[in-house]
Amino acid sequence: MKRISDLFASPWMKALLLAVALVFPWLAESDYQLYVLSTAFVWALAVYGLNIITGFCGQLNLGHGAFFALGAYTLAILTVDHQWPFWWAFAGAGLMGVVSGLVVGVVSLRLKENYFAIFTLCVGFIVYLLLDKWEALTHGAAGMMDIPAPEGFGWIDFSATVPFYYLALAFLMLGIWVAHRIGKSLLGRTFLAIRMGDDLAQSLGINLMRNKVLGFVLSTVYAAFAGALYASSVRFIGPAEADVTHTFDMIAYGLVGGLGTLMGPLVGTLLITWMTQSLQFLEEFRMIVFGPLLVVLVIFMPKGIVGTYAFRRNRRIAAELTAKARAKEEGQRRA
C-alpha cells in the first residue's frame, strides 16, 4: 500500500499520464472523444487560474467565468469583426485578462472574505449584462458565429480535431508548468502565507494588496486564454459564457480534485467530465446520480482527491520520521 501511495507521487506517474495523453488520439474510438477531452483540457486551464487566486491565495472569486467570457469575446470580436490574425487576437485576449483583472482586482481586493466573493459575483453579472445588451460590440443575445480556428504552422491545421487536441494539451502543460513554478517560488509561499491569514502575512512584511492583485491578475490571464481557446474550438459563443454556472462548474472541478494542489484542477476536471459523459444515457436524470456523488465526495474528502491523498501521505511520512527519531533516541539512551 505504501509503495502504491509513493508511486502516485513519483515523477514516473506524471510521465506515464503525459504519455497516455500523447497517444490518446490513437486509442480514441471517435473524434467526439477527442473533442470532449480537448475541451476538458481548456476548462482545466481555466481552473488552474482559479486555483491561483482561490487555492493558493484563499480568495474565493465567484466571477472567474466572466473573465473566461471576456477572453472568448475578445478573440471573437478581433477575428470576426476586425479580421485580426488569430494569434494576434489570442494575445489580445490575454491582454484583456491582464487589464480587466487589474481593474477589478484593485477595487475588489480591498474587501475581504464573503464581501470579496459577493463583489466578484456582481462583477460576473455585470459582464453578463454587457455581453447581452451591448449589441453594437458583442452582437447581443445572437452571439458571435464563425469564429476561426487557430492558424496552423506549415502542414499543421488546427481546425482538425487531432491537431487542436495537441494544441489544447500543450497550453495545459504550459499552464501546469507555470503553476508549478509559482508554487515552488517565493511568490507561491507568499500566496500561501496570505491564505493562512492577513495578519500573519502582514507580520512577515508581505504587501497584501500588491500580492493579492498579482495573484488575481494571474488567475484572470489563465481564464482569458482558456476562453479564447474555447471560442476557437466551439466557433460560436453567446452571453451565456459569462453565466455564473460556469464559475460554479470550475469551483466544483477544483473542489473535487483539490484546490491548492498542483494536480487537483486537472484530476477534478477530467473526473467530472468523464462522469458527466458516462451518465449521459440518463439524460436529464443524470444530475440525480451525479449530485449526491459529488456531495458525498466533498463530505468525506473535504480537501479533494489530490488534497486528501497528499494530506494522508504527508501524515504517514511524518509518523515514520517521528518513529525513527524516537528509535534513534532510545538506542542512544541504551548505549
UniProtKB/TrEMBL annotation:
Main location: membrane
Species of provenance: Isoalcanivorax beigongshangi
Compartment(s) where it occurs, according to its Swiss-Prot or TrEMBL record: Cell inner membrane
UniProtKB keywords: Cell membrane, Membrane, Transmembrane, Transmembrane helix
Membrane topology: Multi-pass membrane protein
The protein, known as: Branched-chain amino acid ABC transporter permease
Xref: PANTHER family: HIGH-AFFINITY BRANCHED-CHAIN AMINO ACID TRANSPORT PROTEIN BRAE, HIGH-AFFINITY BRANCHED-CHAIN AMINO ACID TRANSPORT SYSTEM PERMEASE
TM ranges: 12-28, 34-53, 60-80, 86-107, 114-131, 162-179, 213-231, 251-275, 287-311
InterPro entries to which the protein is assigned, alphabetical: ABC_transp_permease (IPR001851), LivM-like (IPR043428)
